[in-house]
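Late entry, written up from scratch paper. The run itself happened at the end of the previous shift, but nothing got recorded in the book at the time, so transcribing now.
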Amino acid sequence: MAQKPAVARIWRGRTRPDRADEYEAYNRAYGVPPLEKAALGVQLLREDREEETWFTTISYWADIDSMTSFTKGDPVAVHHLPRDAELLIELLARIQIHRILVDLQHLR
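Output as recorded:
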């Protein structure tokens, strides 16, 4: 039986609109695959705005210990991809960790 996630690890980053497609492809190729292998689930979200594009990556974990094992240390520390400094507007120092209180996915 599959484990239910208890925590979500949320990273956000923003880029210029003219670099958004490039960053999306880069993140899909290098950011998402390690999470697919280790997390219970992962989502990559994109919000296009007039002056910037936001990306949000949410990974789902059974507990903080499994997340800490994946990050090899502080689970709220950001592990930037090699080209993040080039492609993102700023490099955030922390990510968010949320306990999952309701998990209803009765998608229609």
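The longest helix spans residues 20-38.
(Scratch paper discarded after transcription.)
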